[in-house]
Each structure stands twice: as C-alpha cells, then as structure tokens.
Amino acid sequence: MSPAALHAASLSVPGRLEAVSLDLGPGELVALVGPNGAGKSTLIQALAGLLPAQGTIHWNGQPLSRILMADRGRRLAWVGQEAHFEFAFPVREVVAQGRYAWQDDPSGVAEALAELDLTHLADRPATRLSGGERHRVGLARALATRAPIQLWDEPVAQLDVRHALEVMRLARRLANEGGTVLVSLHDLRAAYRFDRVLVLDQGRLVGNGRPHDVLTAPLIRTVFRVEATFVESLVPELPPG
C-alpha cells in the first residue's frame, strides 16, 4: 500500500491542539470543520510545517523534518485565512512567487491567474485589491506551485457566491486529478459535498469519516451547540471541476 500523502500522529500544540492523528490520501477532498477556536488554523499550519508541534508528520511517507526547505514548496502549498501584501507588487508577480521552489520557472502562472479570475488584474498592485481579490491571489499563488498537497484555511470566507463556487470546483478538480486537498470551512452544508470531513473541538479530533456518517444531529449538538434538522437538499450538486 502506498503511504498517505499526509500523515500525522499524536500532533500537539500546547493549549491549542491535543494528540491529533490523521491520514489524508491522494485524490481526497477533505473538509475541516469546528467552532471558532477549535484549532483548525493551528492544525493546518502544523501540518504545513509552519508551526512547531509535538508528534510526527510525514509527507508521502517521508518525515517532514527530513524534507529540505527548497523541496517543501514543491510538495505542499498553504493558504492562510488572511492575505496581506506589504509591497505593491503586481498581481502577476505575487502569483509567480509560487514558482520560487522551481527556480522561478514561470510555467503555470498564466493558468493560475485565469483559474482564479485574475487575468484582468494581473498588472494591478496587490495592495490595491479588495479582500476577496487578495484572497484569490493567495489561492492562485498556491495553485501555481502545482504542489500535490494543498492546505486551504477558509478559502471562501471572503468570496462572493460565484467565486466561492469556482474555488470549490477547483478544489474538486485538483482532487480528481490525484491531489490531496484539505479545506477548512464554517459552512457545514458545503462539507457534505466533500469526500471526508474532520471535526475539531477544543483542539481534539472528534470526528473523521464520510460527511453523512460524521455530521449527525448529536455531533452537531455536542460540538456546535445547535440543534440540526436534516431535510433533502434542493441545491444541485456541483459539477466536476
């Protein structure tokens, strides 16, 4: 059996994450949900090697600690909740930063701009964008890496309906092409369209499995403190990316 694309065992960050173990496979689109402060961003940053954590992390069977920094950017891309740009670089140059690990080979930059509906903004300074536009630039930069593992922290929170749907279609397409995509969300309804869902509560992993098996009324009551009523959805499924 081939190793998991992303493996974590007993991953802990004092006061924020407690003994989380998980495996994410190639071709999986996985949702990460939980209330505010549950540890979602902490987990994503730890898996990406951006935050010191206790426990073990493997990317494609190799310990993260043994993967050279230059190689990490070719294997995994991370998109944070906020997209801040301190310098007025054109959008095209910001997206091209995703190719740094490939010796600045520009391959894929134009495609990433087009995928995130940014071609018409390619020459605009990144500091002169709206919040949603900046977030799409961050996603385009991650896409330009062509990394097989993509970790996106609330990628649609600041997007309008059309662009949010396009980002979700893009995530599905990347998974269909063999990538591993982990997306944190607050919209539990959207999580039902993922292959798998991870549920965090107070830093602990309390759910891991198929959405309809995990996101039950009792779990939603316990974790999110709300009563859920399940009805047949009238919203059509998203077409494949």
Describe what is shown at a glance.
The chain is α/β, with parallel strands linked by helices and 241 residues long. The chain is 31% helix and 23% strand. The chain has one domain: Rossmann fold.
> H/E series, N to C?
EEEHEEHEHHHEHEHEEHH
Rg, please?
18 Å
Helicity level, as a percent range? 25-40%
What is the CATH architecture annotation? 3-Layer(aba) Sandwich
**Overall 3D form:** globular
Provide the CATH top-level class.
Alpha Beta
N-to-C CA distance: 28 Å
What is the CATH third-level topology name?
Answer: Rossmann fold
Low-confidence parts: none
Helical region count? Answer: 9
Please give the number of β-strands: 10
How large a portion of the residues is in β-strands, by DSSP E?
15-25%
Largest sheet: 6 strands, mixed
Biggest sheet strand order reads: 6-7-8-3-9-10
Description:
- This protein has 241 residues and is an alpha/beta fold.
- The protein has a single domain (6-224), classed as Rossmann fold.
- 31% of the residues lie in helices and 23% in strands.
- The chain contains nine helices and ten strands.
- The protein has helices at residues 40-47, 69-75, 91-96, 109-115, 131-144, 161-176, 188-191, 211-214, 217-224, and strands spanning 6-13, 17-24, 29-33, 54-59, 62-63, 76-79, 149-153, 180-184, 196-201, 204-209.
- Strands 6-7-8-3-9-10 form a six-stranded mixed β-sheet, sandwiched between helices. Strands 2-1-4-5 form a four-stranded antiparallel β-sheet, covered by helices on one side.
- Strand 9 and strand 10 (204-209) form a beta hairpin.
- Helix 4 (109-115) packs across helix 5 (131-144).
- The radius of gyration is 18 Å and the shape is globular.
- 39% of the residues are buried.
